[in-house]
Each structure stands twice: as structure tokens, then as C-alpha cells.
Amino acid sequence: MIAAAAEPILVFMFALGGVAKLASVGSDAEPGALGRLGPAVLMPERFRRPAMIFCAVVEFGLAIGLVFFDHPLPRWMTVAFFAVSTYVLWDLRRRRPDVGCGCFGEVSARPVGLRSIGRTVVLTAMAIMIALHNTSGLPHLTWTFAAWLGGGIMLLLILSPEIEESLARLRYRAPCEQRPFPADRAFSRLRSSTAWRAHYPMLKSEEPSDSWRELCWRFFAFDAVDGSDVVFAVYLSGRRPPVRAAIVGADGRQAPLQESIPVSA
Questions:
Q1: Does the structure show a pLDDT above 60 at 28?
Q2: Where are the alpha helices (DSSP H) in the chain?
Q3: Most exposed: 16, 26, 130, 205, by fewest CB within 10 Å?
Q4: 74, 75, 81, 86: CA torsion to nearest 10
Q5: Residue with more model confidence, 37 or 60
Q6: pTM score, two decimals?
């Protein structure tokens, strides 16, 4: 019964870890951010992103193996995965005590501690129980199964420093000017605005000649067909942020700012 309760926990941990790692790779706006997450810090910078993607793919593969394949191989590969993870985290804590485990992407940026290592030890023990007992098929939903499942989840929550980190991020959200915001997302907001549609016929190209950020605003400059410049300003906060446009003539004079609200943000 313990092994049957442990299997859905491991599958969920694999899926959650894989998704979080891919999300961190996709949102790495700050150069070198992946170098503060887990074993990636021990690799050359050009290998850090592929290594995190590879780890996510392995986690997805092990989750699929546990669910769909009634064979000892995926179960013992799961044991090896968590056993190696335990050693890697212990070595990482000794060699680089300033970096996080990266277990769940950027939310695992807190330096590796005994709780993170203890969590991998517990997960390794769960994997061994699954490997030693045939847990194929759907488990019987009994009160005993629910008790073991709930107990395992509570133990992992206690051993997860990411819980405090997530709560802290929700309570103390960074101000707008300090939050990362991808330029392509701001450009999408611009193209959905009435200001873009109003000034689009004036533009030589759909690609900006320059782009920069100032606090909560992202600016896009375009060359106009009459020799002037069209500058758009996109606010980076809110569900329906304002978009402003200004025309700067060849003599350097600026027309009054025009403001609009994007159709969709």
C-alpha cells in the first residue's frame, strides 16, 4: 500500500519539476540566471540551458515510464535518478553553497540545505519501495491508501523550501520597474493597440529601428516614410495597459503624445 501511494507522488513530482525547469529556461531574461540553479552552475555557460532541458525531458520520460510501462526498468531508473540527485545536491552544497538546487526551476533558487537533500532521500526511498513491489494498475482507493498518500505529501511539503519562497514572492511582489518583461511580449501588446493601427501607414517597416526600457515603459522607435520617427511607449503592468505614440520630426520637434488602450493585453 505504501508503494502504491508513493507512485502518484513521484509521477507528480516528475511532471512538476519538468514543467518548472522548461518554464525557467523559457523565461531566463537575466543573463547567467541559470548559473545559480542546481548542477548547471558546474557546467560551462553554453551547456547550462541544454542541461536543464535534458533533465526536464528525463523527468517526463520517467513519469511516462512509471505510468504506462509495467516493467522494472523505469522503476529502477527512477531509483538511480533520485539516488544520483541526492549525491549531486550534497556535493553542490559542499562546493557551491551559494546556489539553489534548481529542482523546480527558478523557484528553487534558495541555497541547498538539509531539507532539499532530505527530500531527495525520501524520494529515493519511495522509488525503492516502488521498484521492490509491483504497483502496476490503478490503486484501490481505500482509507489506508489515502492516509499514506496524504502523509507522503505532507512530508514532502515540510521538506520543500520552495513553499516559503513561493509564499514570499506572492506577499512581496517586486515593483513594476524591477520585474522582467520580455520585449517580444511588449511588442505584441503594441501591435494589438489602436495607436499601432493609427500610425502603421506611416512606418517604413514593421520592425523597430531601436527599442529600450525605462522603468515600467518599453519604447519602440520606427522610421517613418516622411523622414520622421514614430516612437511608441508600452506600459508593462496591468491587464489593459496604455500604449502611447509620439512623432518626432526631422527637426527634432515632438508632436503631442497620443494615448490608446490595446484591444487585448
A1: no
A2: 2-26, 45-68, 72-95, 114-132, 143-158, 162-171, 183-191, 194-199
A3: 205
A4: 180
A5: 60
A6: 0.62
